[in-house]
What does this fold into?
Amino acid sequence: MTQKTQALHAILTAQPVMPVVAVADVAGAVKLARALAKGGLVSIEITLRTPAALEAIRAVADEVPETTCGAGTVLSPRQFDQAVEAGARFVVSPGATHALVRHVEDSEVPLLPGAASPSELMGMMEAGYELLKFFPAEQLGGVPFLKALAPVFQSIRFCPTGGISMTNVGDYLALPNVLCVGGSWVAPKEAVEAGDFDTITRLAAEAAALKA
Ligand code: 3PG
It folds into this structure.
């Protein structure tokens, strides 16, 4: 394992659930990161799906030292650079392109790229990746799909995301090829909008207590 992969592996094995959040504003993002960390989820993925995302990553990186903040929904080399410049400690993409994989080679910040078929997995293995996102997990076949991949792709470990919640998370975490799952259920939009950070801390604590 390269140093970069080791760093990513440490992040993905430190907690069973990676909160995947879309933030509306910077101040809310800082409060959200603190509430999640208080519940035990100290790594979070802020997705580049809102105009505030990059500034939010910068603010969380600067103001919430207990949190390891990553960037998600990174679709291009340019977004990768913007995320790294903002202070993202890891970067997540829903898939992967040759351009993105080539671009990130020399960066010290690890990439968790998505792969969703045997050919895509083989492509990622050729590029030196063994830690992969699997998105959208439920829609792509979920637990049975990942189970079927395990004997063939023995070195690959996944972080599935998409459609996972407290009702099915246990089935994913029980798979030997799953390191952790990603999900937005620990930071529901209504709770964030209402400033109900106690609920978020409670949901985070419940998720953090799951066995990976
Ligand atoms: C992601 O980007 O990983 C997903 O949008 C998270 O999916 P969820 O909202 O279904 O948890």
User: Anything to note?
Assistant: The radius of gyration is 16 Å. The chain has one domain: 5-202. The first helix runs from residue 3 to 14.
